[in-house]
Amino acid sequence: MAIRRWEPFTELASLREAMDRLFEETWPRPFEALRPGGLAVDMYETDKDIVVKANVPGVRPEDIDISVVGETLTIRGERKAEERVEQANYFYQERRFGAFSRSLTLPAPVQTDKADARFENGVLTLTLPKAEEAKAKKIEIKR
Predict the structure, then answer these.
(1) CA 139, CA 6: separation in Å to the nearest integer?
(2) Is the residue at 6 inside a domain?
(3) Rounded CA gap, 130 and 104, in Å?
(4) Number of domain units in the chain
(5) How far apart are CA 67 and CA 106, in angstroms?
(6) Is residue 92 in some structural domain?
(7) Which residue, 118, 116, 79, is CA-closest to 101?
(8) What DSSP string describes the chain?
(9) At residue 126, what are phi and psi to the nearest 5 degrees?
(10) For position 66, which CATH number holds?
(11) What was the pLDDT predicted at 79?
């Protein structure tokens, strides 16, 4: 049995990592849809595509800008304010207006020239075909 030197800073670092994992697993990060300018998204991968769905209620498709630079997808847009009623006494005003932007790192290279964007019921669905080098290829074993 070897004698090991006690390193208090190593133990503190591992405690901090354990606490970080606890908080990351307990609460979703960082409430993107609730912060001003936030945009809630889902991203998943199939054999051929990367699919991104974004909630953009109250936004017209022509007010949304989608771009891919390298492996970064950026969705920008603006929610236009309705006419504000000045004579009324507001009890709540929770609907947000103004510009929003969200950038996501794509898990694989995509073919942007073959991308498909659809907008239905306030949900933007992007289908980004994977580049050929990103698709899984089967390698046969020779005998």
Answers:
(1) 48
(2) no
(3) 16
(4) 1
(5) 12
(6) no
(7) 79
(8) -------HHHHHHHHHHHHHHHHHHHS-STTTTTSTT---EEEEE-SSEEEEEEE-TT--GGGEEEEEETTEEEEEEEEPPPPP-SSS--S------EEEEEEEE-SS-B-GGG-EEEEETTEEEEEEEBPGGGS----PPP-
(9) -105, 130
(10) 2.60.40.790
(11) 82
Domain assignment present for 44? yes
Residue 33's pLDDT is what? 47
Percent of the chain with pLDDT over 70: 73
Positions in the chain whose pLDDT score sits under 50 = 30, 32-34, 36
Domain assignment present for 101: yes
Give the residue from 43, 46, 16 showing the smallest Cα distance to 32: 43
What pLDDT, on a 0 to 100 scale, did the predictor assign at position 19? 76
Give the model's pLDDT for residue 93.
63
Write out the two tokens for 113. 């020239």
List the domain range (segments joined by +) for residue 109: 32-82+97-134
pLDDT (0 to 100) of residue 119: 93
Give pLDDT, residue 92.
66
Total Cβ atoms within 10 A of residue 114 = 12
Q: pLDDT value at position 34?
A: 47
